C-alpha cells in the first residue's frame, strides 16, 4: 500500500521463489511462466469458483489473470509477494466483471428472493423457522449446500476477503494489499463476514 | 494490526476475537483475550461458534482447473504474442505515436542502425574522395585529348600528321586557290 518500499522489505520479496520465477518470465523465460500457471491455476480457479459460483466463468477469469500477468511481464517489479500481486489482479478483474454485469443488468432475481417491497411473509416465516429450528443431523452434502448458501449472503468484498483468509491463508496485511484496502478495513470486513456466517450457520453449530 | 488500543478494547468484541483467532493480535492484546476466555463462558462460547463456522467452510468443494487449462492458457498467450508481433510490424511505419512502448526497442535499433549507416557512408565517401582526387584532376587536364580521342586514334601516327601539315594540302590559302 505504501509508495516507498524499504530495501530489506524488497529483499524479503526477492526471496519469494515465485517472485524469482516472475523475474525469469520478465527476462524472457516462458518455461518459468508455465510453472507459475501450474502453481496457481487451481488456487485462482478455486477462489473464483467460490466467488462466482460458476466453473466456466471461474476458468475464463483465471485465464484472463494469467494473460494479464504475461502482458505485464516486461514492466514487472517486485513490490509484494507474488501471490499478493496475483490476487490483486484477480480482485481487480472480479470487480470489473461485477461492474460489467451490473451494467448489463444480467442479474436475475430468484423466485424466492425478496422483491422491492421487502421480504415476503412466507420468507420471514421460513427465516424464523430456520433460526428456531433445533439442531438436527444433516448429511455432508446437505451441509455443504447450507454453507454455500450462507456464503452467498455475504457481499462480494466480504467473500473475497474471507476466501483469501481461509484458503490462501493470507495475513490481514496481504489481504489489504490484494484488495487495495487498509488493514483496519480488512479487519472490519472479515469481522462482518464471520459474524454473518456464524449467524446463518447458528442452527448447525 | 498491533496498535496500542487493541489492549484497551473489550476483548469480547467480535473484531478482537476474530483477530485473535487469526493470529493478528500483538502479545498483550492476545493475553487480554485469553484472560477473558478463561473467566467468561459467554466469550468462550462465541469463540467456539466462530471456530466451528470457520471450519464448516472446509466443506465447500475445492474447484480444480480442467485438464487442458494450462495448455489452453499457454496457447492463448502464444497466439497473443504472435498477433502482437504482427501488430508491431504493421504499425512500425505509422510513427512513434502508435505502439510506442511495444515497438520502442525496435525503433531504437533502427535509428542506431541508420545513424551507423550514415556515418559509414560519410567516412567511405571521404576516403574514396581523397583516394580519387588525383585521377579526377588528371582526367580534367586531359579532357581535350579525351574529347578528340577517336580522331587521334584514326590518324594513328604523329609523324604522318606533321607530313600532312607540311604538304600544304589543307592550307586555307590552298583552299582559296582551289576555288
Task: Summarize the structure in words.
The complex is a heterodimer of chains A (205) and B (179). By secondary structure, chain A is mainly alpha-helical. Chain A is built from ten helices and no strands. Chain A has helices spanning 7-14, 17-26, 30-52, 55-71, 82-104, 121-132, 140-152, 156-167, 172-179, 183-201. Chain A is globular, with a radius of gyration of 20 Å. Mean pLDDT of chain A is 86; it is low at 111-116 and 122-132. Chain B is mostly helical. Chain B has helices spanning 5-8, 14-21, 27-39, 41-56, 69-91, 100-141, 143-147, 149-155, 158-166, 172-178. Chain B starts with a helix and ends with a helix. The chains are: A mainly alpha (205), B mainly alpha (179). At the A-B interface, α3, α4, α7, α8 and α10 of A face α2, α4 and α5 of B.
Defining traits:
heterodimer, A: 205 residues, mainly alpha, 71% helix, 0% strand, globular, B: 179 residues, 10 helices, 75% helix
Quaternary assembly: heterodimer
Number of helices of chain A: 10
What share of the residues of chain B does DSSP label as strand, in percent?
under 5%
- Biggest β-sheet of chain B: count, sense, barrel? none
Tally of DSSP β-strands of chain B = 0
Shape of chain B: rod-shaped
Outline the low-pLDDT stretches of chain A.
Answer: 111-116, 122-132
Biggest sheet statistics of chain A: none
Task: Please state the overall shape of chain A, judged from the principal axes of the Cα atoms.
Answer: globular
Order of helices and strands of chain B: HHHHHHHHHH
What is the residue-mean pLDDT of chain B, rounded to a whole number?
Answer: 72
Largest interface: A-B, 46 and 30 residues
Helix vs. strand class of chain A: mainly alpha
Amino acid at each position: 500500500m505504501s509508495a516507498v518500499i524499504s530495501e530489506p522489505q524488497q529483499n524479503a520479496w526477492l526471496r519469494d521463489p515465485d517472485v524469482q520465477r516472475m523475474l525469469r518470465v520478465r527476462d524472457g523465460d516462458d518455461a518459468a511462466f508455465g510453472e507459475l500457471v501450474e502453481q496457481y491455476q487451481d488456487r485462482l480457479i478455486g477462489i473464483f469458483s467460490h466467488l462466482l459460483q460458476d466453473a466456466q466463468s471461474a476458468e475464463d477469469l483465471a485465464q484472463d489473470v494469467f494473460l494479464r500477468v504475461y502482458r505485464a511481464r516486461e514492466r514487472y517489479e517486485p513490490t509484494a509477494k507474488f501471490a499478493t500481486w496475483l490476487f490483486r489482479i484477480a480482485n481487480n478483474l472480479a470487480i470489473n466483471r461485477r461492474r460489467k454485469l451490473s451494467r448489463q443488468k444480467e442479474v436475475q432475481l430468484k423466485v424466492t428472493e425478496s422483491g422491492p417491497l421487502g421480504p415476503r411473509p412466507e420468507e420471514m416465516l421460513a427465516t424464523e423457522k430456520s433460526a428456531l429450528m433445533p439442531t438436527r443431523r444433516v448429511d455432508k452434502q446437505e451441509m455443504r449446500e447450507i454453507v454455500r448458501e450462507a456464503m452467498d449472503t455475504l457481499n462480494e468484498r466480504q467473500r473475497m476477503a474471507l476466501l483469501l483468509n481461509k484458503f490462501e491463508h493470507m495475513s490481514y496485511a496481504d489481504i489489504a494489499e490484494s484488495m487495495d484496502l487498509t488493514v483496519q478495513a480488512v479487519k472490519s470486513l472479515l469481522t462482518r463476514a464471520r459474524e454473518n456466517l456464524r449467524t446463518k450457520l447458528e442452527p448447525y453449530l | 494490526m498491533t496498535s496500542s488500543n487493541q489492549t484497551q478494547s473489550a476483548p469480547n468484541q467480535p473484531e478482537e476475537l476474530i483477530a485473535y483467532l487469526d493470529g493478528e493480535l500483538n502479545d498483550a492484546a492476545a493475553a487480554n483475550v485469553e484472560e477473558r476466555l478463561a473467566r467468561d463462558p459467554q466469550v468462550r462460547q462465541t469463540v467456539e461458534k466462530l471456530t466451528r463456522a470457520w471450519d464448516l467452510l472446509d466443506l465447500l468443494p475445492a474447484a480444480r482447473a480442467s485438464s487442458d487449462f494450462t495448455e489452453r492458457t499457454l496457447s492463448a498467450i502464444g497466439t497473443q504474442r504472435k498477433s502482437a508481433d504482427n501488430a508491431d510490424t504493421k504499425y512500425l511505419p505509422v510513427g512513434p505515436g502508435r505502439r510506442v512502448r511495444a515497438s520502442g526497442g525496435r525503433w531504437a535499433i533502427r535509428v542506431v542502425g541508420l545513424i551507423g549507416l550514415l556515418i559509414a557512408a560519410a567516412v567511405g565517401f571521404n576516403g574514396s574522395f581523397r583516394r580519387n582526387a588525383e585521377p579526377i584532376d588528371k582526367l580534367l587536364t586531359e579532357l581535350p585529348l579525351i574529347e578528340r580521342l577517336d580522331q587521334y586514334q584514326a590518324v594513328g601516327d604523329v609523324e604522318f600528321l606533321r607530313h600532312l601539315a607540311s604538304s600544304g594540302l589543307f592550307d586555307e590559302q590552298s583552299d582559296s586557290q582551289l576555288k
